[in-house]
């Protein structure tokens, strides 16, 4: 169902790898709401993923960019403005990767060059994206930028490993850059703290299957799916949320404010 909430708006969507990706669902939903956009991902992900299919379905162009490379990001921003025919109204940062997690290194046994790489990809990349947009003056007034995060930034989930620290940094960037982008360009910047979701990145976390079921039973409304996240993101890109900025917005069926649920008690 479409409400034309994004009619006439132009954007950049990072991170659609396959049809499970939150960014994939968001791209489809933005398209249904009348928005146009360019898709981007790391060059390596282009080879592994099915982004061409999504581009065809949504009538979008793809511009490869490694989100850790300022040169790639500057090029992406310039090309997006050119292709879309004007400044940008919305951006989705949907990027995450921990080398320590991938290599099975525990939080108490981090290899610090892995840590630094994961931080660059998952957290600093958000600052780099924002700085490229800001310096190029590429955002329209009342534009909106959203990045995806997880509650491990506030509370400890042992297997989330160094991604917890990366998400804490990412959320802080949204507040800090949100100040300058808001004051000077009337652009809003928020993070959505999403339920565990069965995607490539999500399933990389150890014990994911048990964890997603636990969260489902702890959340009064059940876990938010990738499609739910896409719908919520569209509201944040729309003109209906123009004064929401510098927030970390929990989108988790109530998990973050639930101490325990009846279902979980019954398990014991
Ligand atoms: N899945 C979950 O349980 C969950 C929960 C909360 C938040 N999130 C966050 O949602 C976001 C999207 O993840 P997802 O779950 O859709 O998984 P996903 O694996 O589909 O997406 C992650 C994306 O990051 C991209 N990426 C990795 N390195 C990159 C680089 N150097 N440059 C550009 N892109 C790069 C990947 O190619 C991929 O498209 C991430 O920030 C993730 O941490 C996920």
UniProtKB/TrEMBL annotation:
Keywords: Fatty acid biosynthesis, Fatty acid metabolism, Lipid biosynthesis, Lipid metabolism, NAD, Oxidoreductase. NAD(+) binds at residues 15, 21-22, 95, 167. One of its GO terms (biological process) is fatty acid biosynthetic process. The active site is at residues 150, 160. Gene3D superfamilies: NAD(P)-binding Rossmann-like Domain. One of its GO terms (molecular function) is enoyl-[acyl-carrier-protein] reductase (NADH) activity. It catalyses: a 2,3-saturated acyl-[ACP] + NAD(+) = a (2E)-enoyl-[ACP] + NADH + H(+). Pathway: Lipid metabolism; fatty acid biosynthesis. Its EC number is 1.3.1.9. InterPro entries: Enoyl-ACP_Rdtase_NADH, NAD(P)-bd_dom_sf, SDR_fam. The keyword Oxidoreductase applies. The keyword Lipid metabolism applies. It comes from the Bacteria. Belongs to the short-chain dehydrogenases/reductases (SDR) family. FabI subfamily. This is Enoyl-[acyl-carrier-protein] reductase [NADH].
């Amino acid at each position: 169902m479409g409400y034309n909430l994004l009619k006439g708006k132009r954007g950049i969507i990072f991170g659609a790898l396959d049809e499970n990706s939150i960014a994939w669902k968001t791209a489809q939903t933005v398209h249904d709401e009348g928005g146009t956009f360019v898709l981007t991902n790391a060059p390596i992900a282009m080879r592994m993923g099915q982004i061409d299919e999504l581009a065809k379905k949504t009538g979008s162009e793809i511009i490869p960019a490694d989100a850790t490379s300022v040169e790639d990001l500057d090029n992406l921003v310039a090309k997006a403005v050119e292709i879309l025919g004007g400044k940008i109204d919305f951006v989705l940062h949907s990027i995450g990767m921990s080398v320590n997690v991938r290599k099975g290194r525990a939080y108490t046994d981090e290899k610090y060059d892995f840590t630094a790489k994961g931080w660059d990809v998952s957290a600093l990349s958000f600052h780099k994206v924002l700085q490229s947009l800001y310096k190029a003056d590429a955002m329209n007034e009342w534009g909106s930028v959203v990045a995806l995060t997880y509650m491990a930034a506030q509370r400890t989930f042992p297997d989330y490993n160094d991604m917890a620290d990366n998400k804490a940094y990412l959320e802080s960037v949204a507040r800090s850059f949100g100040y300058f982008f808001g004051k000077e360009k009337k652009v809003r910047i928020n993070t959505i703290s999403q339920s565990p979701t069965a995607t490539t990145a999500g399933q990389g976390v150890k014990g994911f299957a048990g964890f997603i079921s636990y969260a489902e039973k702890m959340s009064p409304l059940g876990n938010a799916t990738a499609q739910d996240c896409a719908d919520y993101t569209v509201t944040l890109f729309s003109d209906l949320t123009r004064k929401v900025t510098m927030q970390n917005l929990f989108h988790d069926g109530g998990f973050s404010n639930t101490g325990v649920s009846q279902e979980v008690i019954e398990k014991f």
